[in-house]
């Protein structure tokens, strides 16, 4: 069981943050994502890191660092959203050693295959499975692997840790403080356990396993939030044929968006606290230097998680979710056909 203390310090003349991680096994996480890590972890930010001046910095980015413009930041918004209702139509199988939700199209064709890289709530999250079913109805053979190895965060955290946005303004300062404390003790240790050096080989291995499945033709990577970055990174490889990332978090600018080998599409909200419009503008500039097709669609007034965890009772949110689904389907229809 891992816990994290709330020891976040700021030095007056530098943009510096420190976080202490503790576990019973004496392991924690550090900014370079190496597997052998110390208990006390320091995160240095670039001199131009404007986050250091944000009055709400410690609330939404307790664990934050920059390395070669690598920005790490997660907040309560990672846990905001709505749990959708419905009964997933697919089945669960073991593929590449991972439990995997499988949702095939009506004709069973693997000509256009999609691998969903999930958010922090994992492959059992109803929203993700329902969305995979929706893509399957559009003719895609969909896989949703358990890349968290049974350690996904529980969807109850959507309401236990972060209430719906429409209710947030009604919270007292004490209630907001309690919410932040829960995020600190739950989310950040999880990110440490599922760091890139652990997660990337699991994801890469699954894509390689899918390529070996008989009759599989072209493969697309689709990712959300935490999983969005890993979909982006797949676009730097020759394993897939196209990628689509919705409101990705923990991305590195420019590194994650350079050296693209496959077409990459992004769906971003204008009110995403983890990927500001100014960051999106920087990504667009990086895209100008790429030799493969890219696109960025901005969704007005949409927050982090909108494409997967939007409120179905809101016409505006439902429209954004539908549009994001159509964006991904059109992108993959074009590059997986």
Order of helices and strands: EEEHEEEHEHHHHEHEEHEHH
Q: Count of helices?
A: 10
Which structural class fits the helix and strand makeup? Answer: alpha/beta
Give the N-terminus to C-terminus distance in angstroms. Answer: 46 Å
Q: How large is the share of residues in beta strands?
A: 15-25%
Helix content: 25-40%
**Sheet with most strands: strand arrangement:** 4-5-7-6-8-9-10-11
Give a short account of the largest sheet. Answer: 8 strands, mixed
Low-confidence stretches: 1-73
Computed CA radius of gyration, to the nearest angstrom: 19 Å
Mean pLDDT: 78
Number of beta-strand segments? 11
What does the overall shape look like? Answer: globular
Question: How is this structure best described in words?
Answer:
The chain has 337 residues and is of the alpha/beta class. Helix content is 32%, strand content 18%. The chain is built from ten helices and eleven strands. It has helices at residues 57-60, 126-137, 157-160, 165-168, 173-193, 196-211, 226-234, 277-287, 306-309, 315-336; strands spanning 2-4, 16-23, 40-44, 91-95, 98-103, 112-117, 141-145, 218-224, 242-246, 264-269, 294-299. The chain has an eight-stranded mixed beta sheet with strand order 4-5-7-6-8-9-10-11, sandwiched between helices. A three-stranded antiparallel beta sheet has the order 1-2-3, with helices on one face. The chain is globular. The N and C termini lie far apart (46 Å). Residues 1-73 have low confidence and may be disordered.
């Amino acid at each position: 069981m891992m816990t994290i203390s709330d020891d976040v310090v700021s030095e007056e003349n530098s943009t510096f943050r420190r976080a202490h991680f503790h576990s019973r096994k004496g392991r924690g996480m550090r900014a370079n994502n190496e597997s052998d890590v110390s208990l006390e972890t320091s995160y240095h930010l670039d001199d131009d890191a404007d986050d250091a001046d944000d009055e709400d910095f410690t609330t939404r980015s307790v664990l934050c660092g920059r390395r070669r413009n690598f920005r790490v930041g997660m907040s309560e918004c990672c846990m905001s959203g709505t749990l959708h209702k419905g009964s997933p139509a697919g089945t669960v199988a073991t593929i590449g050693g991972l439990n995997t939700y499988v949702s095939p199209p009506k004709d069973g064709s693997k000509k256009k295959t999609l691998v969903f890289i999930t958010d922090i709530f994992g492959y059992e999250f109803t929203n993700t499975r329902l969305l995979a079913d929706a893509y399957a109805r559009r003719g895609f053979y969909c896989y949703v692997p358990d890349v968290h190895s049974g350690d996904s965060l529980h969807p109850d955290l959507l309401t236990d840790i972060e209430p719906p946005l429409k209710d947030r303004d009604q919270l007292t300062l004490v209630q907001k403080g309690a919410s932040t404390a829960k995020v600190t003790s739950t989310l950040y240790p999880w990110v440490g356990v599922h760091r890139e050096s652990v997660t990337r080989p699991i994801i890469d291995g699954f894509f390689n396993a899918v390529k070996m499945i008989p009759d599989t033709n072209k493969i697309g990577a689709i990712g959300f939030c935490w999983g969005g970055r890993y979909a982006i990174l797949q676009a730097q490889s020759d394993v897939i044929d196209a990628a689509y990332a919705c409101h990705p978090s923990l991305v590195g600018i420019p590194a994650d968006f350079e050296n693209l080998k496959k077409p990459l599409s992004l769906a971003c909200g204008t009110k995403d606290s983890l990927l500001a419009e100014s960051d999106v503008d920087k990504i667009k500039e990086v895209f100008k230097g790429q030799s493969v097709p890219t696109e960025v669609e901005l969704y007005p007034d949409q927050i982090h998680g909108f494409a997967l965890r939007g409120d179905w009772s809101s016409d505006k949110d439902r429209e954004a979710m539908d549009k994001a689904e159509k964006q991904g389907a059109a992108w993959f229809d074009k590059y997986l056909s």
